[in-house]
Amino acid sequence: MRDLYDSQRAMRHMRRAAMQRGVVAILDVGSSKIACLVLRFDGPERFRESDSVGSMAGQSSFRVIGAATTRSRGVRFGEVDAMQETERAIRTAVQAAQKMANVRVDHVIACLSGARPRSYGLDGAVNVEGTVVTDSDIGRVLAACEVPDFGVDREVLHAQPVNFALDHRSGLSDPRGQIGNELTTDLHLLTVDATILQNLLFCIKRCDLELAGLASSAYVSGISSLVEDEQELGSACIDMGGGSTGISVFIRKHMIYADSVRMGGDHVTSDISMGLQVPMATAERIKTFYGGVVATGMDDREMIEIGGDTGDWHHDRRTVSRAELIGIMRPRVEEILEEVRMRLDAAGFEYLPSQQIVLTGGASQIPGLDAMASKILGQQVRLGRPLRVQGLPQAATGPAFSGAVGLCLFAAHPQDEWWDFDVPTERHPARSFKRAVKWFKDNW
């Protein structure tokens, strides 16, 4: 754990140094596309036009000066599957963004969508040294949280204090400077598969880039797609990507739960490819232009030309009704939403005050998906687009870029995490068998 603490602190220092130099790159490594944005930090006084979003997003401190996307190769389920192909795709995206920005980038902040995330809720309590809460008290109370033994094959990706209480006054977002005796905290810990994480880090290193930050794709998609009230009152963000679907739950502007379903839009395309006996590229085109999940009376009569270049005239002139296409797509979309509902039920989502659900990501653009999601999930559902960021090209403002835009906001204004505070070495959380047994008793 000490190694993790030190490496995360080193990445934070690297991010600050890159921002002071003025340029940092954002890298969204997905299953269907790899997006790279180049940000320029020029200070808050340079860009104060009305195009910004407001104080929460902090749009006034950076501007997008380069953007590029490329088809993702070598990535499955949001995880690196073929190292050389992924490296080539990342290099292509970064070089194109650098060319547009006309500047060289050495540091990147990346996000990943797979890696089997798992959430833990921890708590700790200490007595305040003196009368006023200081940074050292925050570090001690975070160190007092009992970390469960989540296994040697997993790494901590986020460790965020989501709530503080001072002498039984709960709901404090930042108790520093306040007077009290006993300080307690609730900590959200997100762990991911260590091997998958190391593969991504190694791939970025092979591209001659320095990693200045790492985030969960589900978390950053929620930052960019949920409006301020939704983050405050309790909402879920469902990021439907190509190879996986990320789930994040927010309340009081903090993420309290994250998970992922290893299915996405590529699985719908695969079903169409097998059902209609067409190549994947043709299936993707048919899904994009004619896809849907709710059939009407008109769809029986609307015929779609499948096309092809096999040389067999009858085979290449086949047609299929839109109702048949919807019949192929609907079961897979229902399966994804049912899996999401199981994850939300396990997280206790029904106990939140607002219970708003926001769908985002490239696969969320299937017509009729919001109506189907509201029936399956049984909540208020809306389609979410990422917040506007200065300098972002029009082509990168759709739901498919929620992760990339959220990563920009995460880079400019990261939330305080456990490694931002000086944690005493002797009080550093240790993974022991006793703590694992206690966690098992409390949660089983």
Automatic annotation (TrEMBL):
PROSITE patterns: HSP70_3. It is a peripheral membrane protein. It comes from Flavimaricola marinus. Self-interacts. Interacts with FtsZ. This is Cell division protein FtsA. Belongs to the heat shock protein 70 family. Belongs to the FtsA/MreB family. Its main location: membrane. Residues 24-225 form the SHS2 domain. Pfam families: FtsA, SHS2_FTSA. Gene3D superfamilies: 3.30.420.40. Cell division protein that is involved in the assembly of the Z ring. May serve as a membrane anchor for the Z ring. The lineage of its organism: Bacteria, Pseudomonadati, Pseudomonadota, Alphaproteobacteria, Rhodobacterales.
